[in-house]
Design a protein that fits this description.
By secondary structure, this protein is α/β, with parallel strands linked by helices. The chain has 2 domains: 83 residues, Glutaredoxin; 134 residues, Glutathione S-transferase Yfyf (Class Pi), Chain A, domain 2 (Up-down Bundle). It is 53% helix and 8% strand. The chain has 9 helices and 5 strands. The chain has a 5-stranded mixed β-sheet, covered by helices on one side. A hairpin with a 2-residue loop joins β4 and β5. α7 packs across α9. The protein starts with a strand and ends in a 5-residue tail after the last helix.
Length: 238
């Protein structure tokens, strides 16, 4: 839960952008844990000195600052939050080593496979867009199959079981952009008839307490994506 005043007695700050999928992951984790924090909106065209000092290697968001110490990279931050506030429910990471390994494997799949595919769909037009969208759908089908057959996920409300966990946050952080991307490119990525389990999970996740409160405004997300695609398509953007 973001507050205008410094939360947790000024100990927690989040540098980010309100429409960023990666920042959204962190905001979901903080909300689920009930951690108050100060949200500092960054202008990535004019990065603040605080961001440059906090993340001098990649110079990007999100950055969580806890007790003056910065933590970078969204999924590293999510795991840090779970461990630093381990007495606060819910536990975001499975306690069983095997279940944790599986969750981390699929979280890496999201970043290594789905995110690059989404970026190519975003930049694509015509036949290229169609091909990239097909590749993205193929990768989502792998997650649908995991929901159907993997004992860690099958028959459960979330990837984390009865409650949202690490993989839910990894994939769920991408949903606002994914929905905007479908509209901006006039494509269907998650077809409820072809991916019923994933589609049902998406609806459940987006309506969950702690998630729906921090989800970006769909109209603003679509406006931002459409504007960026238009710039890419213009001669000046090439």
């Amino acid at each position: 839960m973001a507050t205008e005043a410094c939360g947790e007695k000024g100990q927690v700050q989040l540098l980010g952008g309100s429409l960023s999928s990666f920042v959204l992951r962190v905001r979901i984790a903080l909300a689920l844990k009930g951690i108050d924090y100060e949200f500092i909106e960054e202008n990535m065209q004019n990065r603040s000195q605080l961001l440059l000092q906090s993340n001098p290697v990649h110079r990007k968001i999100p950055v969580l600052i806890h007790n003056g110490k910065p933590v970078c990279e969204s999924m590293i931050i999510v795991q840090y939050i779970d461990e630093a506030w381990d007495t606060k429910a819910p536990n975001l990471m499975p306690k069983d080593p095997y279940d944790l390994a599986i969750a981390r494997f699929w979280a890496a799949f999201v970043d290594d496979k789905l995110v690059p595919c989404m970026r190519r769909v975003f930049a694509g037009h015509g036949e290229q867009l169609q091909k990239e969208a097909e590749d993205l759908v193929t990768n989502f089908h792998l997650i649908e199959e995991a929901l159907r057959t993997n004992s860690c996920f099958s028959g459960k409300a979330y990837f984390g079981g009865d409650k949202i966990g690490l993989l839910d946050i990894a994939l769920g952080g991408m949903l606002a952009v994914l929905k905007g991307l479908e509209k901006a490119t006039d494509t269907v990525i998650i077809d409820p008839e072809k991916m019923p389990l994933l589609s049902a999970w998406m609806d459940r996740f987006c309506q969950s307490n702690g998630v729906k409160e921090v989800m970006p405004d769909p109209a603003k997300q679509l406006e931002s994506l459409s504007a960026r695609r238009a710039r890419l398509a213009s001669p000046a953007g090439n």
